[in-house]
Write a structure and sequence with these properties.
eight-stranded parallel beta sheet, 3 domains, three-stranded mixed beta sheet, 3-methyladenine DNA Glycosylase II, Chain A, domain 3, TIM Barrel, Rossmann fold, 17 strands, alpha/beta, 17 helices
Amino acid sequence: MALTGLDIYKLLPKTNCKECGNPTCLAFAMALAASKTSLDKCPHVSEQAKETLGGASAPPIKLVKVGKSGYERELGDEVVLFRHDKAFFHPTCIAIEISDMLSGTELEAKVEKVNALAFERVGQTVSIDMIAVRNDSGNPDTFANAVKAVADKTCFATVLISEDPAAMEKGLAVIGSSKPLIYAATEANYEKIVELAKKYDCPLAVKGEGLDATAALVEKVAASYKELVIDIGTRNLSQALAEMTQIRRLAIKKRFRPLGYPVIAFTASDNPRDEIMEASVYITKYASVVVMKADEKSQILPLTALRMNIYTDPQKPSQVEPKVYQIGAVTKDSPVYVTTNFSLTYYTVEGEISGSKIPSYIIACPTDGTSVLTAWAAGKFNGEKIAEFLKACGIEDMVSHRNIVIPGYVAVIKGALEEKSGWKVTVGPAEASGLPAFAKAHFA
């Protein structure tokens, strides 16, 4: 059970020195209980108090790292139930499963296909995060060979899936130094698997059978090893959703330590469409790793887009740098378009203008990362603001004309913009999809 602010206050020095940044020791205790500060901010706390309060100052969900330097993925360390309360920090890792029954050219082709699961979206490159090698053969040597073949062809963080300690030891002998996630310690094998995790200093997944059994098993394992990820063992989607939500609530609200670890989930359906739906549920509620079989770009792209949307700070919209962007081999006669610096808006416009094959300038006005209509409604995208940025961004020195295209949804600003800037304003299409035809009609 988590300590209350008053419980913590009783263990503090009560000097009210303010060196922690809080006006009183009581205020510091309340902040510590709410996970808004850390115990090391208090310079006068005793060693005995540190020992007692260590659990209170630790994050409710432990931070666990998987993979070698440069390709490392961080799991857990989340502090809220809902992203609008603060933010989610460590995006769900998508792992693609590879069976050790594959070999030779078939295995190489599979790994190459998985390596290619990377995408460009709103100016960022997104991809899968892990490869999970499963010991379907039941043979330790076959497993080790598959692990080596995969490791030779990819740099992704790896999940080693086998409940056989002998097979796991063979796999770890190949890539143990790259800190793979060991899956899994169960009630039947946890003593041997924990020893392997200690030997190779690798994170360990603990697999139970439901909430109670998982919590009990985690307590046994955590007594000697704490770099853990948990799997409740439930594969029914609705039940897994309920149990994973309970895990998050217990960890965040009740500080229930046996469940205060990142969660790994496995899709169960053999139908790719249903599998993607399962994975999307796990990404939203609250898996740190999702292991799946689907490996087509058309299947993975929607998941990476969903993940990007969820794991952005809702108080800091995704935005591009406000400036003039050149699309293609522009000249002084190239057309000029204006939009906001909201990433999704900008890259949608950029994509359509690139598709028109007509070199153009795009001015991304500073609107704090809001869309066209939102920025206009907030007074951040009007004639006066755009006119100011036209003078500041340098576009007047880049082109020989004074013609600009504005989004159709804000046609109402045309007069004010012409008056404030001296530029001739053309109202473009309301939707970005209309830009190629518009460009060819006006500038081809």
